[in-house]
Amino acid sequence: QSALTQPASVSGSPGQSITISCTGTSNDVGGYKYVSWYQQHPGKAPKLMIYDVSNRPSGVSNRFSGSKSGNTASLTISGLQAEDEADYYCTSYTTSTTLLFGGGTKLTVL
Amino acid sequence: HVQLQESGPGLVNPSQTLSLTCAVSGGSISSGGYYWSWIRQHPGTGLEWIGYISYSGSTYYNPSLKSRVTISLDTSKNQFSLKLSSVTAADTAVYYCAKSQGGYYFDYWGQGTLVTVSS
User: Each residue of A17-33: pLDDT tens digit?
Assistant: First the structure.
């Protein structure tokens, strides 16, 4: 199974909004509501930011939001802050009862 | 608040078996709805799901690793384990254990442990 497709990098200035896409197939992203997003700072474990496409865990800023259309899911970060600079990964449940990660996106806050 | 902590050798010889344990505190691994997972990250690259085991002992593995992976539960110690056989340098990575809610997403992670495969 191939990794979900994410852009290698995105960037934005403080206060701006950015969107990271995560493209799969009808066997994963398009077939289920089970897309999640993770933030990973260097040397740290990933942190859950969004689950079930658009739900935020307790404690995660409402500047983070998720959505899905067809086989592509998206993570939007509004009001960019310096602390948002990190790697972001999407994950989807699949028809093979497995989980599949995206390749990761490096977010740079200019 | 669940906490997870990986432990095991940081260096494994090629062709041997990599063995890691994840100790869970703040919750029972027998609790319904939870899946106990292993994920790895090769140096400088992305995350790779290895597999998970359900609270009832059912296992699910990444097809690319399935022939070499075993994940098991030890309810008496509230921990779960990973065994990866016939390792090569390509298995050098940071290994994370994580709790999965329903098998759909990972809500709690261990800090990760680096395992190097080298003679």
Answer: 999 999 999 999 999 99
- pLDDT score of B45: 93
In angstroms, the CA B94 to CA B89 distance is 13
The residue assigned the tokens 């261990």 is B110
Q: What is the mean pLDDT of chain A?
A: 97
CB atoms A48 and B46 under 8 Å? no
B112 touches chain A (CB under 8 A): yes
Residues B12-37: what's their mean pLDDT?
94
Alpha helix (H) ranges present in B1-119?
Answer: none
